């Protein structure tokens, strides 16, 4: 009996060792051919004014806490997007909100109260009326002593169709700022009028309900929500060590917090290769996932990424980050 136990034990240990070696060889980036190329740079809201994150909540008026301006651009405007692409962005993220006349305004906040000279929501106004407001009205870097953009933001809030027409060759990540399925349906109707080649340059993310509604109407478009992320990453964490890529990971968008990324099988290069083959964009965001708008905004932030990282990078300061890559060689 002892002899059979020893044989069984030795076979078990041998099999376990083989499994460990297989997992290592199948997931180690050290044994993967270098990917080469440069990272995909995603500029959050274009080239925007940034602000301190200390003590920030969902109700914080961020326009009232900006740093001393280093450039003249306001977030979610066509000039800021043009500047971001000129600086080296591959993709610009923008936020959309519905208007009274059935369009989408490109604007971030839930209400107009913080940044502008009017109150209420975008849905309370037509797009023509929104063009008359001053979106730079509320910005201050010195607790209200001066307002450097007041009077300079009139006419700068664009409609989504205006952005896509003005920058017809550029890629965008569109953010639905609600969990209203009706906004997903409305956006699907809008996007369905675009040529297929244009749709390939776009991706959409937001709440579970609008993204599900959008995806049901336009199943080919790249999307992301917490639900789509979980449907991809949970089974991948369970079986990705084999090289298995779940169907939910195909042709989608993944925003991976930097502190979670190392837990993914094959991170970074094997994972990136698998997702690229599946037609999926992988964007690394800062932190642990508690704030998906946290980005890599300084050279010191970039040092936290793996050496020779070539996936996507989320940044709030494309003007600082792009030169680290675009000026090389």
UniProtKB/TrEMBL annotation:
Gene3D superfamilies according to UniProt: Phosphatidylinositol (PI) phosphodiesterase (3.20.20.190)
Where the record annotates domain GP-PDE, the positions are 59-325
Q: List where the protein spans the membrane.
A: none
Pfam families named in the record: GDPD
Q: Which InterPro entries match?
A: GP_PDE_dom (IPR030395), PLC-like_Pdiesterase_TIM-brl (IPR017946)
Concerning PANTHER family, the annotation shows: GLYCEROPHOSPHORYL DIESTER PHOSPHODIESTERASE (PTHR43805), GP-PDE DOMAIN-CONTAINING PROTEIN (PTHR43805:SF1)
The name under which this protein is listed is Glycerophosphodiester phosphodiesterase
Q: Name the species this protein comes from.
A: Paenibacillus spongiae
